[in-house]
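step=predict obj=Class I SAM-dependent methyltransferase n=199
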Amino acid sequence: MLLHRVLPFAKRLLAETVLPGETVVDATAGNGNDTEFLAKLVGNEGSVIAFDIQQAALDKTADRLGDLHHNVKLILDSHANVDRYVDKPIGGAMFNLGYLPYSEDMSVVTKPESTIEAIHKLLGLVKKGGIITISVYDGHQGGAEERDALLVYVKSLHQSDVHVIRYELLNQRNNPPFLIAIEKVKDFVEVSQVNNSEQ
């Protein structure tokens, strides 16, 4: 199949750009699917920094990782604070926006302010040629606002610094997710400020 669904396509992009031994970031650990994928991708010599604001998500991620846990650091904090935990170049990053799948409390959702701040900081950390993938779910309360703010932000990024794509399957029903992928094309990108008026 050439036209993958959103999540497999996101993984395909990262598999083509992340190298064994690199550090990568899972900005939304959730149930640990992406964290597990990234841990396998970077191998024993690499490392994964995984964030979530819910301890239940980190517990589920830890259970899923099993023997892969040795190269994963689970952080109970907002991904907006990524720069407090990562101070070296990374090979790539993944976001899965929305709420924790199968959670009893669907009121805990990602927010546009923290999502954009995290992406902004990660752009300063990711290597040239590195990819940040953002799977956007907008069918829940607050999802449309996060989607719109995110699209305004990524469209404002300069084309000489990054390439941005939007990937989606147009004939899917019930608010299917779409993917935003950002490829860094310069060694240095000036990302010192976020325009809060656009969030």
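step=describe
DSSP finds five helices and seven strands in the chain.
step=end
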